[in-house]
Amino acid sequence: MDINLNINELLQYGLKSKIMNQADFTYNANVLIAMFNRHKFEPVEIEERPLEAILDDVATFAYHAHLISSNDVVIMDNFKAAVMDVLIDKPQTVINKFKALQAKDPVSATDYLYDLSKKSNYIQTLRIAQNVSWKQSVDYGELEMTVNLSKPEKDPKLIAMQKDLKSKTYPKCQLCVENEGYRGTGLYDARSNMRIIPITLNKEPWFFQYSPYSYFNEHSIVLHQEHKPMIIDRTTFVKLLDFLDLFPTYFVGSNAGLPIVGGSILDHEHFQSGKHHFPIEKAKEKLVCKKEEVSVYQLVWPLATIRLRSANKTQIIDLANKILLNWQDYENKELSLCNSNGEPHHTITPISRKEGKDYVFDVILRSNFINEEYPGGVFHPHADCHHIKKENIGLIEAMGMGILPPRLKTEFNLITKVLLGNEELLKDLRLTKHLSWIAELKSKFPAGADPMEFVQREAGLVFSKALKDAGVFKMDPIGQKAFLDFIKKSTM
């Protein structure tokens, strides 16, 4: 393998993609030869190749040259990120470019950072393109479904080692500002080629960055400078609308601040944002009332959602906070909506966006109450959904995008073969969790139908059922009446 050729390829890619300048050519060449333990660089003619192919070659070279300890996907990815970090601008230069563009037009600023994040391989577009996606028609609209392959699965041995790590590591979590430039380890994904932008929300220091896994268009993360727990209170609504004032073409939302319903990271306050229109936006609205300049709607949606719409920033924040406080104290034991043992169980998943001059809040009511029948959560996907969706219903899922685990790509392929008559595959241990579902599928699989489309459609219905499980007020007459009563009392 000719590493000198690969270095030439990297430098030419950097110039052509405009992530580096000609003035940086010699400097970057010398940094790269040092990374590969070489002592000279010779410019040569090269034929253009995809960046991913070049990075695969240099990471393989690094492994065989004992520059990295393993060819595990995480360690290889970490090395690739460090290589790309050589080519791109340092943080302050990126910040200066972003701020200069933002002063003229917020969209051009986000376009610049998003483009840099893709060209630097921080957002791995090739992996993301391998995701399996489809639309799912349901009784309340249309869901977006994806088997997400962009986040690589780690070696089980590494996962086991990760569990033994002390809680106080560096960085403290994947969202901390200290991740910028961090080279990573076999137990921790690198963020060498990440660039983050300082912003101010509620007069506090926050940062804006893109997600490397990009579950949707321009998927971004908004994180507090301090490593402190997620919290949902009045200031949450202020921060969300402050963000919209900076980036009015994006939505922004927060996971709930309690376990079971709060997403995977609760120890670092953060939001998610992006330029995507989720199914919840198209949900049918029922006007309940108008409180001063704020219109209040009940949504036809499996997760009980109150929509607020107003151009008056203060009034919509005040009403959203009033709903939050009323929900935190709400009790309805007949519906298993309890606050037991002095512990808080009720919280919200708030989502905000702009529609013209109006601010819009979708306030999703959540509960993490558990009982003997549902020890994993009364309002969490129940056991009959776990073969498809066992994880928390977080912000993205609550808006109608089903993020399903990578294992399902292989398992769906096996199930289609069973539907076409290969009964031997039922002995495959990977299908054990699906056996009762497969029996149901076989009983209603239409002759001549496309088996993969059928399996995906049925999986989407399972996900829809998981959303309904997570709804605090069910979509039946009893649940909807209780929901409407709550809205009226909370907005009086």
Descriptive account of the structure:
By secondary structure, the protein is an alpha+beta fold. The protein has a domain at 126-402 and 473-490: HIT family, subunit A (2-Layer Sandwich). 37% of the residues lie in helices and 17% in strands. It has 15 helices and 13 strands. The strands form two sheets. A ten-stranded antiparallel β-sheet has the order 3-4-5-7-6-11-12-10-9-8. A three-stranded mixed β-sheet has the order 1-2-13. A hairpin with a 2-residue loop joins strand 3 and strand 4. Helix 12 (407-419) packs across helix 14 (451-470).
How many strands, what sense, and barrel or not for the largest sheet? 10 strands, antiparallel
Order of helices and strands: HHHHHHHEEHEEEHEEEEEHEEHEHHHH
Rough outline: globular
Looking at CATH, which topology of the domain at 126-402 and 473-490 would you report? HIT family, subunit A
Strand order of the largest sheet: 3-4-5-7-6-11-12-10-9-8
What is the radius of gyration computed over CA atoms, rounded to a whole number of angstroms?
A: 25 Å
**What is the first-to-last residue Cα distance?**
73 Å
Mean of pLDDT: 93
Q: Count the helices. How many?
A: 15
Helix proportion of residues, in percent? 25-40%
- The first-level CATH class of the domain at 126-402 and 473-490 is given as Alpha Beta
By helix and strand content, what is the structural category? alpha+beta
Q: Tell me the CATH architecture of the domain at 126-402 and 473-490.
A: 2-Layer Sandwich
Low-pLDDT residue intervals, each spanning 5 or more residues? 153-163
Strand content: 15-25%
Tally of strands: 13
